[in-house]
Amino acid sequence: MEVENEANMKVEMEEGKTFLSDAFDYKGAPAEKASTGGWVSAATILGIEMCERFTTMGIATNLVTYLDHTMNQPSATSSTIVSNFGGVSFLTCLLGGFIADSFLGRYWTIAIFAVVEALGAGVLAISATVPGLRPPPCNPSQAVNCVKANMLQMGIFYIGMCALGMGLAGVKSSVSALATDQFDHNDKKEKTKMEYFFNRFYLVINIGTILAVTVLVYIQDEVSRGVGYGICAASMITADIIYLSRSRKYRYKKRSGSPLIQVVQVIAAAIKKRKLEFPSDVSLLYEDSSPESRVHRTNHFRWLDKAAVMSDGDFGKEGSATPNPWKLCTVTKVEELKMMIRILPIWATTIMFWCVHAQMITFSVQQAASMDRSIGKFQVPPASFNVFFIGGIMITLALYDRLIMKRSGGSKGLTNLQKIGVGLAISIIAMAAAAGMEQKRLKVIRSYKKTPITTLPLTAFVLVPQFAIVGIAEAFIYSGSLAFFISQAPKGMKAISNSLFLTTIAFGYFVTTILVNLIKKITPGKDGIPWLASKINDSRLDYFYAVISVLGLINFGVYLVCAKWYKPNSSHGNAKDSDDVNASHDEERAGDAEIS
Fold this sequence. Notes:
Strand order of the largest sheet: 1-2-3
Structural class: mainly alpha
Order of helices and strands: EEEHHHHHHHHHHHEEEHHEHHHH
Largest sheet: 3 strands, antiparallel
């Protein structure tokens, strides 16, 4: 649906109508401002995101208990499966963004991958409903005799999870960008509407998440998994139908190609010309960008400058005025890549937080499942304790907005780098607190060692602090890092900056998987039981949390060094925004709508 018309035509006035210069309607004609885009179109698009969050959070947060109690998988294996699912899904967002930018366009990417996600949830519903697709029920008191799911049963389960992850990647990579396309960035009124819209709609999306970890999780535990997963599939299909029904009212933008291609072109050209002499005058380096979009050369990563050194054959055999982009790149393109490289140390040091985050939907849920979760006669589902995690995020953002941003007129809040630092520091405290609380739980287990029980006489609400503190940390990490990546990325690569941010989540989950497997191998004591045993009550989860806390402390030290080292390109328009949380306020609000 993305159109290929020229995007540089002037705004046209016809019979009192205003047509946009860089947006088109569903027919490929210039979009009429009054009848396309706006709040309703953006809300319809983000309805897909809300249902994606409802589906993903409703399944992922309760998945570890399904693997434990239905598929009869060992505790550490269940955690690894959930972590790998999160890692692969968010890493695939890069592929989703590439497909949208280069082939399908944002509109069709969202429409198609929403169906893929619905199919994934449908397969999981079938897997959870058909008796032959899951192992026989297991009595908790005879857990050692439980039959694990066989290869066919796990195969069907993995097919459903793969489709679910692909759907997540396709939707999440494009939905925020298409929603922002519904507002004219050159119109101050529409730009203000966009800021206001994303600020308020973020609350609605989080309400959807809370419904997922409360109502949907309760249905899965108390009614059936099949019904719960079926509701997820139905919600995605319904949202997609509503989304498609408004196709004539959307504004579409021209596909500009993937920024990843530009990155590869600069590197390829620099490698090919690595042996060329560097010109004595840097003004001889190739540049044809317009003055307003030009980025001046810096001395960092000088080997990349070879991509802008002109040589014979760069312009083709027929004397073309346009160079081969795989042989010669402009200084601006080279500097844009340098800007992305300078971001990478900050990117790398935020990965450790998402390892902490992964514990909230894996081992922390397993802890809650082993404890007393009753409120009177009502049993709180283990995965529903994530409501305190989400509550921590929402309350922190609300207090920050009211107590700091509102009172200062939006000018004296924490910088993006300061936000990231605060979040990393709080996450260290969270894991230390979790380790201490696990020691208390293990003490109760030891007192009942001679008379094993399925539910410990210890309230699961003692776990609330670790959920809430990690939520507080995420509020700072998410808003700070996303705004940092968006404001510091060059204009031509802002699309990739969101995907780059999502990969930090992916690698955080992968780090969890590596840690779990490593600790299982190196920690068996004289009794042969590793810190992360088959059953959560036989594990030393307190040691595992302590390791994560220590690694977080080391990572925090590295982050402080990287943050001090980081210097933006002073010649770029975003340079003044290097630490200003309000630098790209509209884009930050748009990004906040994608919090995961």
